[in-house]
Amino acid sequence: LEFKYWRPLILFLCKTSSNDGKFVPQAGIANLLSQLMKRGKGLTIFAGVTQGEFRDKAAFIWQGRRNLAQVMAEKEIDGFSEMVCATSELEGQKFLLHASGLGALRPNTVAIGWPDNTSTMGTE
Predict the structure, then answer these.
(1) pTM, whole model, 2 decimals?
(2) I need a labelling partner for 4 at 20 to 30 A (CA). Which of 22, 72, 89, 119 fits?
(3) Phi, psi (5° rounding) for residue 39?
(4) pLDDT tens per residue, range 28-73
(5) Where does the secretion signal sit in this chain (predicted)?
């Protein structure tokens, strides 16, 4: 693979609200991704995780995907939105890392938010 054909395919593991599935801004990462993709080359997957059983959260997941797609449209980011349901946020993120993309359209870069105060972080 030659360098001139390389395109960023970014998986952004974003934070979503547990109440309504809306995107929770994380220190300007969405703006950074928007700037990285200004040339129209590359794709981004905005992916969120919610905890619980899929049968109980199906409508919530559908709404969350729409909310993430709306944020991407506002920031003019090309790509896809995804939201999964898992027993924990860590398990959901593992699933997204392993299963995101399709064929050659697999992410080659992962972006995550980092907390301002690491002392308040959970054990995961």
Answers:
(1) 0.84
(2) 72
(3) -75, -5
(4) 888 888 888 776 678 899 999 999 999 999 999 999 999 999 999 9
(5) none
